Amino acid sequence: MQTLPYALKPNASAVEQLKWRLNWGEPALTIVDVRDRELFRSERISGAVSMPMDELVASASSTFEAIRDIYIYGESEEQATQAASLLSDAGFESVISIPGGLKAWKGVSGSVEGINA
User: Fold this and answer.
1) Is 0.85 topped by the overall pTM?
2) Partner of 68 at 20 to 30 A CA spacing, among 17, 47, 78, 87?
3) Beta strands 94-97 and 69-73: pairing type?
4) Residue 3 has pLDDT above 80, yes or no
5) Residue 9 pLDDT
6) 20 with 93: CB under 8 angstroms?
7) Any bridge partners for residue 94, and if so which?
8) What percent of the chain has pLDDT over 90?
9) Spacing of C-alpha 22 from chain mean position
10) Of 12, 44, 41, nearest in space to 31 by CA
11) Cα of 83 vs its chain's centroid, Å
């Protein structure tokens, strides 16, 4: 019997899904950090791109295809949810907010980078 990966389990959190996908080298996903650039430089999920809230829709629209899977986190769950809504309203089909953001990512021993990592 084959064990289902986190990405297919209905009770897996977004952070567990993301970690599983990265561990298995699954392509076609992007991690977006909507915090300000100073926080981004300090510490971030490894491989994340910086797109602060005031630049988010314009930057994403010129960078990503609408079908790309986008995992998004911010300073708070409210900020991440707002950012996810903005991208969904702009036509992006698969935007996943990461509840708990960087703290949740570190809680599952996810890889981080930055000057304070």
Assistant:
1) yes
2) 78
3) parallel
4) no
5) 59
6) no
7) 69
8) 79
9) 11
10) 44
11) 11
Q: Determine the residue type at 80.
A: A
- Cα gap 79→97, rounded to integer Å: 10
> What is each CA distance from 116 to 42, 79, 112, in whole angstroms?
5, 22, 9
pLDDT tens by residue, 14-47: 999 999 889 888 778 999 999 999 999 999 999 9
Q: Please answer whether residues 95 and 72 qualify as being in contact, where contact means their C-beta atoms are separated by less than 8 angstroms.
A: yes
- Whole-Å CA distances, 3 to 8, 54, 56: 10, 42, 37
What residues form DSSP beta bridges with 29?
69
pLDDT in tens, 72-85: 999 999 999 999 99
| 8 Å CB contact between 16 and 6 | yes
Alpha-carbon distance of 70 to 116, in angstroms, equals 25
- The token pair that represents 92 in the structure block: 């992006």
The per-residue pLDDT for 25 is 85
